């Protein structure tokens, strides 16, 4: 009896210990990236990374909290309440103003969902690490261009100072974006202190939208030759479209649906053309010069049943740089006749099964023909 009791206790403990592991597994599936290396960064640099959290489940999910294991990294949440397919973020900020040297932190994220009135919770862990140089300082810590109108240039100056070797140099500044350009000039070199002025210009040809791109300062330091400086901001488009995206809903095969969009600009313009990458769409608009245009979008559901995602291109008289796009979504349903035919076929199979059963040819309780309601298993969460 004592041996049996020991087995029962051990089995119960194993179930209890398995619970958190299972919970962590379903939470971890929401995070495609679970570790990030900030690399070598300058003191005072604004160093931020966003971990994407996507709700891959049918149930609504909430990001409840996040805590950091180290003061070198602070963490916060963006967009906490997530429906199916929606994305939130765990934001990790490296504290480069207070800390120097090699540091890392574990971020513990708590997530919950409502299981028919019962709140289910789980956790997962994300990790960040990096090396904060104490000899190189950025002021300010990043370049930010906030809400710049499309077509307008902007610029910002960053002071880069170094304390150490008197022969330390910045040999080059590299970047992947063509939206901005830089000018580098040495402003001081004396007694082991070197200083540079780095002027970053946002070009008037920069496309609309948000951006967050690093500039890489390439130095003659053999151990740590590269130092990132982040450039972020938003270029407000000259032409805007609403609603974006355009949701056309469910459309039966062979039917049409019509919705209107509004195209706005900051100065009078004319819509030159509205086009789609594939057929099935028609567009009606005016030919006047105005700051506001109403465009009727007509979708003709002649294609096979299924999901539809199409990009609509809008060209204006302001030139190619001010063209804009929007995305249209729809679902083409089977034609009513097809649905009725499918229902008739289903009923025929049911009656056929019942007839066979009545004749003793099918065992309803065995492995033969059975008709019953079924549902898909609820995903975990």
In the CATH scheme, the class of the largest domain would be Mainly Beta
CATH homologous superfamily placement of the largest domain: Immunoglobulins
Outline, from the CA principal axes? flat
Low-confidence runs: 1-23, 344-379
CATH topology of the largest domain: Immunoglobulin-like
Share of helix among residues? 10-25%
> What is the strand content?
over 45%
SS-based class: mainly beta
Specify the biggest β-sheet.
8 strands, mixed
Number of domains: 4
How many beta strands in the DSSP annotation?
A: 23
Order of helices and strands: HEEEEEEEEEEEEEEEEEEEEEEEH
What is the residue-mean pLDDT, rounded to a whole number?
Answer: 83
How large is the radius of gyration? 30 Å
Separation of termini?
Answer: 38 Å
How many DSSP helices? 2
CATH architecture of the largest domain: Sandwich
What characteristics describe this protein?
381 residues; Immunoglobulin-like; 4 domains; four-stranded mixed sheet; 13% helix; flat
Q: Could you walk me through the main structural features you see in this protein, from its secondary elements to its overall organization?
A:
The structure is a single chain. 13% of the residues lie in helices and 55% in strands. The protein is mostly beta strands. It has 4 domains: 115 residues, Immunoglobulin-like, CATH 2.60.40.10; 95 residues, Sandwich (Immunoglobulin-like), CATH 2.60.40.10; 95 residues, Immunoglobulins (Immunoglobulin-like, Sandwich), CATH 2.60.40.10; 37 residues, no CATH class. The strands form 5 sheets. Strands 1, 3, 5, 7, 8, 10, 12 and 13 form an 8-stranded mixed beta sheet that branches. Strands 9-15-14-11 form a 4-stranded mixed beta sheet, with no helix packed on it. The longest helix has 27 residues. The N terminus and C terminus are likely disordered.
